[in-house]
Design goal:
Blueprint lengths: L13 E6 L2 H11 L4 E6 L6 E8 L2 E7 L32 E4 L5 H10 L8 E3 L6 E2 L8 E7 L5 E7 L19
Parallel strand pairs: 1-4, 5-9
Antiparallel strand pairs: 2-3, 3-4, 6-7, 6-8, 8-9
């Protein structure tokens, strides 16, 4: 029996991050990745800016720029390295990465396009249910294909393409509590 949901969600309105240079952020998200810049705000009293980029389906990635923001903390507030290149761990309450949903049939084309733009990317990761959780080939067990890269501020981005529909069998693990350790 379907459980009644307490709220009706329509996706992510926006995710708000902080950048060190709004101009470079616009050049990356609008000019390289092609996300339309749909709203710009100069904050009161010259305290910064807040810009919104459309990442599809009415969802946005937004950035604040604060002239006196603290420096980034890779390895704490975000991963210091991309997957396959070192530790991908970040602190509790941090944002580890943003996975942007792309069409599965365009995955390889988009991967090459990132490389052609000079963006450093990971190898393609075909995530599956094997012990290593990655397949060199796209098999029937692969559920998502991924490539990871950083934006100019070290925000870890992922292009992700679902390759299967999920069912009840895909929810097969009990959550772990710190008390269980």
């Amino acid at each position: 029996m379907a459980q009644e949901r307490p709220f009706e969600f329509k996706g992510v309105n926006h995710l708000a991050l902080v950048c060190r240079d709004m101009k470079k952020t616009v050049e990356f998200y609008r000019d390289k990745l092609g996300m339309p810049l749909i709203k710009t705000i100069n904050l009161p009293n010259n305290s910064g800016q807040h810009f919104f980029f459309d990442c599809g389906n009415g969802d946005c990635i937004a950035f604040f720029w604060f002239p006196e923001a603290p420096e980034a903390s890779p390895g704490i507030a975000a991963p210091a390295m991309l997957p396959t290149q070192g530790s991908f761990v970040s602190a509790h309450g941090s944002m580890n990465h943003i996975a942007l949903n792309i069409p599965a049939e365009k995955f390889d084309e988009y991967y090459q396009r990132l490389i052609d733009m000079g963006i450093e990317v990971t190898p393609i990761l075909n995530h599956d249910n094997s012990p290593s959780q990655v397949s060199a080939e796209v098999t029937e067990d692969v559920f998502v294909r991924s490539v990871y890269f950083f934006d100019p501020d070290g925000v870890c981005l992922e292009f992700a393409a679902w390759t299967k529909d999920f069912d009840e069998s895909d929810v097969a693990h009990e959550p772990i509590s710190v008390a269980d350790l």
